[in-house]
Amino acid sequence: TTMAEFPLCQECAAEYRDPGNRRFHAEATGCGHCGPALELLGGAGDHALDVISQVTEMLAAGRVVAIKGIGGYHLACAAWDSGSVRRLRAIKARPAKPFALMALDLETVHSLCATGPEEEAALASAARPVVLLARRQGVAVAPEVAPGVTRLGVMLPYTPVHELILRSLKEQGFPPVLVMTSANRHGDPVIFEDEKMAAMEGDLDAVLRNNRRIEVPVDDSVVQITYGGSLQMLRRARGFVPVPVSLPLPDPLTVLALGGHTKNTFCLAGGTDAVLSPHIGDLEFASGQNRYRDVLSHMLALGKFEPKAVAMDLHPGYGSAWVAEAWPDAEIIRVQHHHAHVAGVMGEHQMTGPVVGLALDGTGLGTDGAVWGGEVLVARLADFSRACHLRYVPLPGADHAIREPWRMAATYLQLVFGGNWTDLPLDFAQSVPKASWHLLRQVIARGTHSLPTSSAGRLFDAVAALVTGRMAVDYEAQAAIELEEMAQADAQPYPLVWSDAART
Fold this sequence. Notes:
The protein is an alpha+beta fold. The chain has 16 helices and 20 strands. The chain is 30% helix and 23% strand. The longest helix is centred in the middle third of the chain and has 17 residues, at 286-302. The N and C termini lie far apart (57 Å).
């Protein structure tokens, strides 16, 4: 293990080799002389307790500090201090996407958010995931932590260093809650190497690290409790990987499934089990693709796994597509994006089909070359038929339409009301950049750079732009999330009633 780099001192070695000593049963053994040590770059002290005290004082004073954890570095700041949160956003180039928080204990979480027994069980579990919770009014959390949303992502400490810092804050009279977000620039994977962390040191006030190497990087997991009280996984990583998932049918092949282009997770399947990788992130840039390659190599070696088949998305431009070249003799299985979504849910619930699957998504290449995303599929695990879908509309400017929701709103208005929609008594109509729309309308008319799409995500973007006035987004799904927040006070889940006739 990574503890092999710390040979035991004479006293620890004696205890470790004595079956009557409890330390005989510890896999990772060390003390202040021979074990890993804390180091504060940017601080003055070198004793562990002095280091914790210094970090606490820095955080309480509004400083931004990098803290090394189990699977990588976090960037931390005082959750109650608007100035330090704004500075952290500038460092990460993350203007608005909500930050995760770390609170000392359940008592602290209760003071910030409304929780039920299911949320408390998830927070206190050994996995220690980030849990999405309803924020209480008037709590000591800066509005810049999660602008425009009423839920906070909160986790409890999962290393002694985290707990020592938060306890120290409480003892000094400060709220024991910190912003704790992965240390990375926008679009890059989490930083876990000490030498790469050094590249960010100039933007930070201090770096708290230890000299134990991180072998396997891993992000924090994110979960929420659904209306039915069950745990829903939003990001499966630390604490849940590599626990296998049971398959509804035994698979005679060993299959490597490459995953998507954004929020990537790949999968190794064979026999009755599937092992998912931790959340890797987007594969848009070389940094994400390099992380994908490293995690894949590690997991293949861990299980001595040699794929006989490689499953991949229909889209040829995904950042993971190159992986298939490593196994020229493997069978290539092309999978339609939304069938993969439906089949994934079927596998999770041990179903083989046929089922009626509703796939409401942002973007996925369809079998007809269009951009799908609002689909009703009659599916089995290995095949599907498309029963119906949302009406095709142009996707003006391709990915630009995702970043600028006003484009989809204007497109829908054009289809419904014609070219005179700009004269409608709508705030949105007055806000649209007229010169840009004039050019975009020509693009739509020519059919260039405007593939047809049935995407439910783009429909939500259009409605959000009309209702909230959101013209451009800083992070994925921001417009739809803000629309959901507006509806949250009145929205209630509605039952889906089945009759015997419907079943047949």
